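Suppose you are handed only these lines of text.
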Amino acid sequence: MEQARAWLQAASSVAVLTGAGISAESGIPTFRGAGGLWRQYRPEELATPEAFQRDPRLVWEWYDWRRGLIAAASPNPGHHALAELEQRVADFTLITQNVDGLHDRAGSRNLLKLHGDIWTLRCLGCGREQRDERTPLPELPPRCDCAGLLRPGVVWFGEALPPRVWEAAGQAAASAEVFLVVGTSAVVYPAAGLTWTAKAAGARVIEVNPEETPFSAHVDCSLRGPAGVLLPQLLS
Ligand code: OAD
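From them, the structure of the protein bound to 2'-O-acetyl adenosine-5-diphosphoribose can be written out as follows.
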């Protein structure tokens, strides 16, 4: 902890990669591990274009359930600590795999959303994107004014990440002096690869996670514990 704190204090460029674990203490279940299943489905079975084509209502029921949980949740001390870190570091980028919007609500600004945003809906007919924060949605699956089917504005398995966001994330990882990786199981690529990008470019890599991950043995410092406790300590 002492060493990680010193690296952070000395750094003028910091990039952070977050995953579902940072929102766990806000009451939002992670995808993998305890509580990660919804009904009997794994995320890989629901978060795909094929699943949506097969049964849009089922996929929307899952997202509508998640939207309800997120709407009732608030950012936790982990989200707030990262918003504060952004104020202290000249060159700061927060890269998140999360679609829940809790980083925005905590005040993070230089934020790259690799997997989109659950509050954005995209029409498969006319292509228009709209923000819709109603929960529950009045109709499942929701429809656009043009009568087209609306899908969640998130990235599904088998889909490409938004290219400009991905490019900016790669640049941030490659130029960071310190790369902090928080609350991700590190199994979903390409997002997980950013940690290797940062390491290969010479960053000090610090991991925050209560569990061991595929990164743990390779990072410079692996802090085991919940983000809501460890991130405020890292900044103190
Ligand atoms: P996962 O659910 O795979 O992993 C959550 C990680 O958070 C695990 O490593 C936990 O040990 C850790 N964790 C749990 N509680 C924590 C806490 N309080 N503080 C810190 N860490 C904690 O979530 P992701 O790695 O984000 O993609 O999953 C990656 C992607 O897979 C998601 O973005 C989503 C999912 O399917 C898409 O939907 C495309």
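What can we learn from it? Residues 56-71 form the longest helix (16 residues). Residues 19-22, 24-25, 30-33, 36, 43, 47, 97, 115, 155-157, 183-185, 188, 208-211, 213, 226-227 surround 2'-O-acetyl adenosine-5-diphosphoribose (CB under 6 Å).
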